[in-house]
Amino acid sequence: MIEFAWPIRVYYEDTDLGGVVYYANYLKFMERARTEWLRAHGLEQDELIRELDVIFAVKKVEIEYILPARFNDQLLVSAKVIEFGRASITLAQEIKRQNETGVLCKGKIKIASLKATTFKPCAMPPAISEILQTKEL
One of 16, 46, 53, 73 is an active-site residue; which one? Predict the structure, then answer.
């Protein structure tokens, strides 16, 4: 699968008293990248709810903090599918400073496909799985 990357700048509000990105905000950055990854595939989450009664919810997160990001850093947050199940997708995500190779934070995020009306797991609609598995960005 192709790796998708989304740029994010660190704002003052993202940092703690030491000027370092607060640990929970790395998860927010990863969430934004996954949302933009879906958009890049032509999938808007509000439309998926309305048209297909499907939402995606985080089921499991594994995260490793390696180096700190700081106020005003320009980051690149990647998302790459590493496993595609009938009712879930697992993505590997990394956060790096733009134009640098060192990884600041990396994670493995499992996303479940749920019925929006019941919040119960459901098979991913074929239209969505086909787009996410085959479409080149």
Answer: 16
